[in-house]
Amino acid sequence: MYEYDVIVVGAGGAGLRAAIAAQEAGADVAMVTKLHPVRSHTGAAEGGINAALRDGDDWELHAYDTMKGSDYLADAPAAEALTQESPKEAIQLEHWGMAFSREDDGTVSQRPFGGLSFPRTTYAGAETGHHLLHTLYEQVVKRGIEVFDEWYVLNLAVTDEDDPDERTCHGVVAYETATGNVEAFRARDGVILATGGLGQVYDHTTNAVANTGDGVAMAYRAGVPAEDMEMIQFHPTTLPSTGVLISEGVRGEGGILYNDEGERFMFEHGYAKNDGELASRDVVARAELTEVNEGRGIEDEYVHLDMRHLGEERIVDRLENILHLAADFEGVDGLEEPMPVKPGQHYAMGGIETNEYGQTCVDGLYAVGECACASVHGANRLGGNALPELTVFGKRAGTHAAGGETEDPEIPVGKTDDAEPGDVETPVELGEPWTSEAVADGGATAETGEAVVERALERERERVNRLLERDEGTQHAEIRAAVQHTMTENVNVFREEEALKEALVDIHAARQRYRDVYVADPSSTYNTDLIQTIETRNLLDIAEMITVGALAREEFRGAHWRKQYQERRDDEWLKHTMVSWNDGRPELWYKPVVLDGENQTYEPKERSY
Amino acid sequence: MSTQRQQPETESEADSAETETAQERRLDEKRRRAEERERERVEAEERIAADAERYHLKVFRYDPEVEGKQEPRFDDFHVPYEPGMTVLDALIYARDQFDASLTFRHSCRQAICGSDALFVNGRQRLGCQTQLSDLDQPVRIEPLPHQEVVKDLVVDMEHFYDQMEAVEPYFQTTDRPDGELEEQRQSRENREKIKKSTRCIWCGACMSSCNIAAGDNQYLGPAAINKAYRFAMDEREGEDMKQRRLEIVEEEHGVWRCQTQFSCTTVCPKDIPLTEHIQELKREAVKSNLKFW
Fold it and tell me: Does the model's pTM come out above 0.90?
């Protein structure tokens, strides 16, 4: 058994920043990641880091933009923590050597982004995430923080009290990909989940193949509620054939969207009369699909994003990476022709419920980054707010887990007295317990942390052996493809009741097939078949949480569009959707949004751009 | 040929007429079967023609744990082609449809995570960045040469990571600004100078293509030297630190091992001018040594 003060699961931007902070606060830290840190998906972020750095801008403006962008489903204390601490974190990265794009006076450059009232997006070309990831990893190397790379965390080791609020997380169990060994990691002070996105639940996504929502699924099964899972961001500009992301920076620098009739539709069809292409992402994504659905799309599928008029010099200076992506993955020369783009799944605004220090309701269990929901993004994340989320909350959680100095949190977690029961009619029973076998709550009540971790280890070894021993049945690829297909067909940008119900039926069918899942590869050396089989198990829970939340939320808010409900209904729906694991079945409930900030209350207003 | 018949008039005539009818029936049946066979042949031909749309992959296989795969071999896969399909797409198809044990690293599929560097038709390339249509068939896919094979297309990257870490790959300066909100300024020119070097995605293609690295296990290799270049040329680190960095790359298994063969530069999927960077560090090292003489 390995033993550390703090164990960080996942080594993308949030995990790396958390590990650095925990170590600086005096903890003995280890990172456990299924990839190598530099392979993490943070590297694919392009646009930039929002930070109120300049005269004329301040954190309060940034907080206001964030709350408005979220369609008032973000919690003000989290949004304010993000915007207050983002400048310091951005400059901290600069002090660690990050190669930001520069102004003539040598200061870091900033550019406009969608939904921002000030050009406050700090960037490094169109490859900001790559620079951020490598800069943070360099600091981890410098500090000698131990990294277990290519170790896949199978489950958490959590005590088994009836009430999740009374449970404690003592560690994790992980599978060493290279050798097939299953080992336990005990965390004396805390486990920080930083496992990133869940885009693989869709088949057209900007997300990496590794983004299978493992952290959310593990925390959910350990009793931590998942929050606002129906809030999925669809990025307006992804390449049609692959889902590769074309940064919002293109529109930030002045790129223009055209339909098949050569109209600048964002203005000409009145989708965003003031901000046009720079309206927030949900608005632009819907506009593009409306153009396609009304017959003004190109080849009935996509629209054009044109940046030619910006001139070669500016494009190469600020968006060079985009030229490579368009050429390599779509065969288009962005200097000579417009780029084809369409919306694609991009970001999960919801996730593991945490407060503004990354704490969950389970003692000793934290979550940060895309797998977490603090919540700063609400129903729509502003471009450029994900990278500061990584650094700000990564640092806060790392410091808190290591016992460093922090203030009292304002956001409540777990089921408090404010919880309101949820009710939704589903066409099939959800979350059949047969797929919960041996992956539910993390451990039996035990006297010591070691014993809890040992129990979890035993159970995971059994689970791996069982999967490997079976030699016929259904393969994960088939089940995964079925889930991805139904989510893309039925739980996409535009959502209708019947389609959402159909998705639940399909997910149910996929669960049934998962009962017969088997791993074809018998090897204990680098068995990706086994890992993908377990990931697929996680995707099933994720797909169900997204869909049931979407079916229940009978209103139109941010990224969540419902055909029958074309208005935001604050009287009834100004609340977070929560899904808790209840003996294998998802239990739906709601908790209020915190709109009271430090100096002001963010009163919901109509959102126009 | 006409098969018109007359009414039989006698018994014997009737017999022979019956035989003739049976024969006729058999012939009809034969014709029908011939027709069917012809249709099958045409369909088969059509299928073969469609198969021409399939790409023929020859994929390296090896697994120390599975008896049948302990002896390295190549497996053939025929993957249906769609426009825009990459080598990685083809491998995923082969794995998901034909053989779940086919093993390779991949994640972002947009040339930024650096995990799917492979040896494709005799050259180091990223699987996700390589269009099948640019390759001759059969497409030969192997693990990166000069690295230990773990299984199928997966190689051990530990040595590569160790070399990357040997050059102190982190920003070091004593000249920090006072305020926590004050940048340590960098000129646009200086940022431009290091820009290409910062694009490295640690895929290992350069190291695998380098003859020197293949022969000298201790050679830092192009990726690590490029990482050293990224910091040595960053004006924010200051002169003293630059000297220290030059000393690191000047050691016995450093820049002077490079024989300017350009293979690293040729295969780099991010177009980093690796050889140039190595040469520039050689020049800097000479210049800085001259100062002391």
Answer: yes
Are the beta carbons of A106 and B150 separated by less than 8 Å?
no
Chain A residues 384-443 with CB within 8 Å of chain B: none
The angle at the Cα of B199, spanning B107 to B127, to the nearest 5 degrees, equals 35
Say yes or no: A56 and A157 in one domain: yes
Cα–Cα distance measured from residue A450 to residue A104, given in angstroms and rounded to the nearest whole number: 57
Q: Are residues A114 and A210 in the same domain?
A: yes
A357 found inside a domain: yes
User: For the segment A145-203, what is each residue's pLDDT rounded down to a tens digit?
Assistant: 999 999 999 999 999 888 999 999 999 999 999 999 999 999 999 999 999 999 999 99
A165 and A181 in a single domain? The answer is yes
**Other beta carbons less than 10 A from residue A135's beta carbon:** 24
Residues of B in contact with A99 (CB under 8 A): 186, 191, 194-195, 198, 234
Using the beta-carbon criterion (under 8 Å), do B100 and A94 form an inter-chain contact?
no
Domain match, A62 and A166 both: yes
**Under 8 Å between Cβ of A322 and A247:** yes
Q: What is the Cα–Cα distance from A474 to A479, expressed in whole angstroms?
A: 8
Closest CA to A373 of A504, A198, A553, A548: A198
Is A30 in the same domain as A65? yes
| Domain-located, residue A454 | yes
CATH dotted code for B156-173+187-291: 1.10.1060.10
Q: Where are the domains of chain B?
A: 51-151, 156-173+187-291
Q: Are residues A296 and A173 in the same domain?
A: no
Q: Topology of domain B51-151, per CATH?
A: Ubiquitin-like (UB roll) (3.10.20)
DSSP letter for each residue of A565-602: B-S--HHHH-EEEEEEEETTEEEEEEEE---B-SS-B-
* Mean pLDDT estimate for chain B: 90
Pair A381, A69: CB distance under 8 Å: yes
Q: Cβ neighbours of residue B182 under 8 Å, at least 6 residues apart? A: A91
- Interatomic CA distance for residues A375 and A348, integer angstroms: 11
In angstroms, the separation between the Cα of residue B87 and the nearest Cα of chain A is: 12
Q: Determine contact, residues A415/A589, Cβ cutoff 8 Å.
A: yes
b vs e for B93-126, b when ≥16 Cβ sit within 10 Å of the residue's Cβ? bbbbeebbbbbbbbbbbbbbbbbbbbbbbeebbb
Q: What is the mean pLDDT of residues A478-497?
A: 97
> Are A362 and A263 in a shared domain?
no
Give the pLDDT score at A440: 41
Checking if the pLDDT of A438 tops 70, the result is no
Q: What positions of A carry a catalytic annotation?
A: 281
Give SS3 for A164: helix
Q: Is residue A586 part of a domain?
A: no
Per the structure, how many domains does chain A have?
Answer: 3
Among A293, A314, A343, identify where a domain stops.
Answer: A343
With contact defined as beta carbons under 8 Å apart, do A23 and A29 qualify? yes
User: CA dist A238 to A210, A245, A250, B3, Å?
Assistant: 19, 5, 12, 69
B97 token code pair: 């449809």
Q: Residue A363: inside a domain, yes or no?
A: yes
CA B75, B78, B83 angle in degrees (round to 5)?
135
Residues in CB range of B74: below 8 A, 6 or more apart: B58, B59, B60, B61, B140
| DSSP symbols for B246-293 | HHHHHSTTSGGG-----HHHHH-TT---HHHHHHHHHHHHHHHHHHH-
- Indicate which CATH number applies to the domain containing A162: 3.50.50.60
Using an 8 Å CB-CB cutoff, list chain A residues near B188.
102-104, 106
User: What's the rounded Cα separation, in Å, for the pair B236 and B176?
Assistant: 9
Beta carbons of A388 and A82 less than 8 angstroms apart: yes
Helices (H) and strands (E) in chain A, counts: 15, 22
Domain that holds residue A528: 449-565
Interface predicted TM-score (ipTM) = 0.95
| Tokens 């139109």 found at | A556
Residues A245 and A228 in one domain: no
